[in-house]
Amino acid sequence: VAAEKGGYPHFMLKEIHEQPKAFKDTMAGRILPEKGEIKLDDVHLSKEYLQGIKKIFIVACGTAYHAGMVGKYVIEKLTRVPVEVDIASEFRYRDPMIDKNTLVIIISQSGETADTLAALRESKKLGARVLAITNVVGSSVSREADDIIYTWAGPEIAVASTKAYSTQLIALDFIALYIARTLGRICEKDFQEITSAMKNLPDQAKIILGHEDKIKSLAQKFFDREDVFYIGRGLDYPLSLEGALKLKEISYIHAEAYAAGELKHGTLALIEEGVPVIAPVTQEHLFEKTLSNIKEVKAREGFVVALANEGNEEIKKSVDDVIYIPKTHPILTPILAVIPMQLLAYYAAVARGCDVDKPRNLAKSVTVE
Ligand code: G6P
């Protein structure tokens, strides 16, 4: 087993470090800049079909659901097709309004999650076309979907998902670009800008991994706390949800994520001296808004760690510490920003002596309801 971990103490840390390679593998051969095209071998959505689509549903569980929330934002932004995101165990019991004019995107690392698979079957029964994003070739989801995008992240052993999540985000960006191009809703310039930024992601992920010691020492500052809060706006909101999920599942610290603007509608009551608040501010158009929420936390003496784009010096004045990520296109930031979130959770769990790869009560793939 030690050999399988490639010298890392846990599979989770190994898988976090595999992200630069996983990003490359997920993107390999899929961006054709000369043609201004995204090439997805197992996706066959014609222009005629896409023109008839009234709505897209994204359905998943757990971490994959958080990927779906990012996907909604990106797909709506680039394609202007409305997207709804649903938790698989809710979707299947609420008589969802789907028909042949609905595209359903199913996201599942394992391709075997019972609720997700049931949602796929229900969607097909109602006449929708199903596109699946999965990491496992030959999985039930991959066999039953109409179209497939494999994430090519390699086997993920740790229960807490890391590289499967970030590569799901890349797959969702590809879907958004593919649909936007097919429907003529994105210009050549924007397409080139996004795809060339995507190509830098593997090297930028390496840069973040180079700051591991700093992130570790930050985790050691709050690992003994009972509660940690995450606040973010726009794409930083699903990022916060994912950061909080990672922390609670492996360290057993109570962690909650809020849309930053919701802070004053409840969570602020829980902020007192020293309460850790992780605050991503990667969305520059929302920076001033989140900054004012951060100031509200600081006024109550919370301990704020911001996650910001390189070059954002202003944030330093208002927080206790900052983790920087390299600059990328705004819709791609969650792919990079999730890496420090994963490392914070990992090092907090290690400091608490938790069984990081096999958290209590949890399973890698939930094949029963
Ligand atoms: C379990 C795992 C999570 C995962 C979720 C969905 O809860 O512990 O890490 O996000 O299932 O799994 P899937 O394989 O469908 O992505």
Automatic annotation (TrEMBL):
Its EC number is 2.6.1.16. It comes from the Bacteria. Residues 45-185, 218-359 form the SIS domain. The active site is at K364 (for fru-6p isomerization activity). GO terms for biological process: carbohydrate metabolic process; fructose 6-phosphate metabolic process; protein N-linked glycosylation; UDP-N-acetylglucosamine metabolic process. GO terms for cellular component: cytosol. It catalyses: D-fructose 6-phosphate + L-glutamine = D-glucosamine 6-phosphate + L-glutamate. The keyword Transferase applies. One of its GO terms (molecular function) is glutamine-fructose-6-phosphate transaminase (isomerizing) activity. Keywords: Aminotransferase, Cytoplasm, Glutamine amidotransferase, Repeat, Transferase. The keyword Cytoplasm applies. Its main location: cytoplasm. Homodimer. Catalyzes the first step in hexosamine metabolism, converting fructose-6P into glucosamine-6P using glutamine as a nitrogen source. This is Glutamine--fructose-6-phosphate aminotransferase [isomerizing]. It comes from Biomaibacter acetigenes. The lineage of its organism: Bacteria, Bacillati, Bacillota, Clostridia, Thermosediminibacterales.
